[in-house]
Amino acid sequence: MFADPVLAHQLSEIGVMLLMFGVGLHFSVRDLLKVKGIAVPGAVLQMCLATLLGGCIARLFWGWNWAEAIVLGLCLSCASTVVLLKALEVRGILRSMNGQIAVGWLVVEDIATVLILVLLPPLAGVLLSDAESAVSGREIAWQIAGIVANVVAFIAVMMLVGRRVLPWLMAQVARSGSRELFTLFVLASSLGIAYGASIIFHVSFALGAFFAGMVMRESRFAHRAATESLPLQDAFSVLFFVGVGMLFDWHILIEAPLAVCTMLLIIMLGKGIAAFGLVWALRYPLHTALTVSASLAQIGEFSFILVAQARDLGLANDYAVNLIVGSAILSIALNPVVFSLIPLLTRELTSRWDWARQAALREAPFEQVPEDVTTESLKDQIVMTGYGRLLPHLARVLHQAGHGVLVMTPDQDVAAALDKDGLRVIVGNPAEPETQAAAHLREAGRLLILDNSTVSLSIAETARALQASVPITVIAPDPGIWTDVPGFDGVRFVNSYVAASERIGDLVADALAEGDLIGEVPGHSRKDLTASPEQPSEQQKSETVESDSIESSESGQ
């Protein structure tokens, strides 16, 4: 049996589309605009520096012509979105500010690479000095203007039409009560919009799928859409790496090991140092600069597409293709190592140079307790951390009850919402000593961990190192990892399902005793109901009936 590289490539493209669609579901337009000040100039300058570095080495040391050298540099300048997303997700920092900056940076790189892919055919004649196929500067300018117009038109259609139509269609499908139909709609929408964006507006499949996810995020069913499509995202993204392996000729490692190592150094050191310097120059914290530089220390899918098109145009040969693919596979394999070195690099840089210590003291939003908070108010406070929807709700309940609460979370959106409600928030990895120190865990009265994975164990170990006597309680549907470490340092466990059942049981018993209704009107908080005693309007009644109908159909699945 022989593998079909064409089929593997097509399936891997589906995986990239689904993955980018999932990113869009968690990355709103607001998130993109939030990081535009660093993502746009940083990505453009970093791509220029990487192209210049790779091109000069290929031209001056290997004797390549300028056309081939520039193409090689362009292939080295764009990092893999697939690899980056997996790396950030595994480390739990995808929703952090550092993660949003890295993703926004790569979105800008993807848009720039789409521009390069469309411009490469008309530029091939100029680069190869072919008089017959050469085009004038005016024609190239028209090409660029057309591409920019297509991208702007696609974004305008998605923002003006898609933001209204897609969420409405998703609600109609959800009302049917069919889980299979809902999943089919989500997949058909993501792939259909990606394909339409490529055919009509001539942008990449990945970019089209990304904006499809961003538009669907406006719907209240976005979380369900992400959950339903996750298994297929994982399955097809694996095929992406299978397709990469089928492109690789391992003989390049024996025939040209020095060239492969040179490419690897450009990708991991050259691009990393360039990105680090740009982020540092834009006056962002040291850990942000290290995270972004580690995120960009690899290349992937767009590099393969670019070098394949260049080969068809005569701008690259099979040797260049194997060189790119070989260095890409090595950079992808070594990227987790680069991320693991971030704490070590932080310690080494801050211990040797003043500029690094000053950069480490730069604070991003929510990374320090406000100055007007006194030390006395931090004593015996409740420090909370974890993942899921229970965290912000429980934090608000405790805060409204008059308890001092401080939340550690890597999710920027959760932090912004809680900060708006008057709670103290620290954004960062809760397992890191720096984050717990910023949360003043040494003065805390207790620590609540709303998680049962290995991450919760790391959080507890770090907390014990900062304050050996702090009471720790794990709140989760089941003990999880804690069944393997029973009695760990006095950690207690609360079953969230049992606790919720007991609370709901009390509410039902009280309502039955008083002959009152149970619960609240969907879409209204208790504060809204008490503040406005008048009867709901006809529009509110219809919204309530529609919400009840949808929720009932979902619960029947």
Summarize the structure.
Helices cover 69% and strands 5% of the residues. It has 557 residues and is mainly alpha-helical.
Question: Could you list some keywords that capture this structure?
Answer:
557 residues; mainly alpha; 3 domains; 69% helix
CATH topology of the largest domain: Na+/H+ antiporter like fold
CATH class of the largest domain, anyone? Mainly Alpha
Inertia-based shape: globular
Strand fraction: 5-15%
Strand order of the largest sheet: 3-2-1-4-5-6
Low-confidence stretches: 368-374, 526-557
Kindly state the number of beta strands.
6
| Global mean pLDDT | 80
Structural class determined from secondary elements: mainly alpha
Helix content: 55-70%
> In this structure, how is the largest beta sheet organized?
6 strands, parallel
Distance between the ends = 41 Å
What does this structure look like?
This protein has helices at 5-25, 29-34, 36-60, 66-77, 81-90, 97-127, 137-175, 179-200, 205-216, 222-247, 252-255, 257-281, 286-295, 301-312, 318-340, 342-352, 354-361, 375-378, 390-400, 412-420, 433-438, 454-466, 496-514, 526-531, 538-555, and strands spanning 382-386, 405-409, 424-427, 446-450, 472-476, 492-495. It is mainly alpha-helical and 557 residues long. It has 3 domains: 5-357, Na+/H+ antiporter like fold (Up-down Bundle), CATH 1.20.1530; 375-498, 3-Layer(aba) Sandwich (Rossmann fold); 524-557, no CATH class. It has a 6-stranded parallel beta sheet with strand order 3-2-1-4-5-6, with helices on both faces. 40% of the residues are buried. Residues 368-374 and 526-557 have low confidence and may be disordered.
